[in-house]
Design a protein that fits this description.
By secondary structure, this protein is mainly beta. It has strands at 3-7, 10-12, 18-25, 32-37, 44-49, 55-57, 65-69, 75-80, 89-95, 105-109.
Amino acid sequence: HVQLVESGGGSVQAGGSVRLSCAASPNIRTCVGWFRQAPGKEREGVATIDTDGSPSYADSVKGRFTISKDNAGNTVYLQMNVLSPEDTAVYFCVTGDGNYWGQGTQVTVS
């Protein structure tokens, strides 16, 4: 059983930055992704990082967001820059197979 715990959300002004963390227990060696869900909208994929560290991004965040992980496979990060109100959402991390989700962390951009 994998437990994922997100942290780092909060309120930020437009143009600002936030870094989210996803702590995995036990450490994970599979693909991990970040999703987000804004009020009244469907959940959407934001970024994923593969086992070899290869990242992929949704078009809406390319050039602004960076996904990374520590070498131990314990923590996956999402660095979010140049934030806009459209990025306001609850952000979740999830294992690549979709079986395990974190509880989510709120990011509000005003």
